[in-house]
Amino acid sequence: MATNPLQFIQQTRAEIAKVVWPTRREVLLTTVMVFIMAALTAVFFALVDLVIRNGLQVVLNVFG
Fold it and tell me: What count of Cα atoms within 13 Å lies in the side-chain half-sphere of residue 64?
């Protein structure tokens, strides 16, 4: 069913009014958590890379 542009705008405004926006504190906390998780992930993959590199060097030294 087609609605006219005025009805569409009214319905859109009604839906936007239902949105619950996060507080400044919530945004800050989630941002900090994202940075912490990114740092932990970077450390994890750096350690995995180090282990794989050293393991590969051992294998190459033994068989090379």
Answer: 6
What is the reported pTM? Answer: 0.66
For the chain, which residues make up each domain, given as ranges?
A: 21-63
Burial class of residue 43 (count of CB atoms within 10 Å of its CB; 0-12, 13-18, 19+) = exposed
CA atoms within 13 A on the CB side of 8: 5
Answer yes or no: is pLDDT of 64 > 70: yes
Percent of residues in the chain assigned helix, strand, coil, to nearest 5: 85, 0, 15
